[in-house]
Amino acid sequence: VVKVAQRNTSKKTGSKLGDGKRVLLLDIEGTITSISFVADELFPYASKELHHHVDSLWSEPECKEDLEFIVAECKQIKVNDSTASPECLKVAKLSIPLPTGGKAKDQAMAAIESYLQQLMRQNAKVTGLKRLQGHIWRKAYEACKIKGHLYGDVVPCLRRFASNKENRIFIYSSGSVEAQKLLFTYSVEGNITDLLSGHFDTKFPGS
Questions:
Q1: What is the pLDDT of residues 128-152, one digit of tens each?
Q2: Regarding beta strands 168-172 and 21-26, do their DSSP bridges make them parallel or antiparallel, or are they unpaired?
Q3: Peptide bond into 97 cis (omega under 30)
Q4: Could you give the residue ranges of the DSSP H alpha helices within the chain?
Q5: What does the alpha-carbon distance between residue 198 and residue 104 come to, in Å, rounded to a whole number?
Q6: Closest C-alpha among 145, 79, 73 to residue 116
Q7: How many other β-carbons are positioned within 10 Å of the β-carbon of residue 6?
Q8: Model pTM?
Q9: Each residue of 35-75: pLDDT tens digit?
């Protein structure tokens, strides 16, 4: 476990709870998976598939909820941030619920997609974007188009740590909880979610 943790010290710790109990809190990118997997595989895939995902699922409940969450985020940013981008301000002008058809739908879709592409180019840690990315990646994982990369020493180290039934392993990352779970469910080492006790993302207070 120490070998895994030493790779990146930004967001993880091994904390002692007493009576031999320990909690291991791990980041993902650069800690247990390569930065290139995220930067060169996951992010480009989400960017490439964004239009198809939004266009084909616009009226589906999950996608509709994701997009309206993003609009609501922009409205909040407009109130709280005088430096909000023009793309964000354009999305903030959209009404909720979003239009379901016609020219209004096309304009809303174009505005949202332009804003999301901007966020992805900036690698922005924005909850709405992360949630939508997770749903795009889910389809890719389920279709075996993507396998979650893990460094070779990660699973043996985690299994050794988890062999003490009192120990707990948690993941804390800017990626959505769903995206985190997908990586561990469809990893190159198979489904290792049984080793994990919980996940935290940007919705966690103070993150």
A1: 999 999 999 999 999 999 999 999 9
A2: parallel
A3: yes
A4: 2-5, 35-37, 43-57, 61-80, 86-92, 102-121, 127-142, 154-162, 177-185
A5: 41
A6: 73
A7: 9
A8: 0.84
A9: 999 999 999 999 999 999 999 999 999 999 999 999 999 99
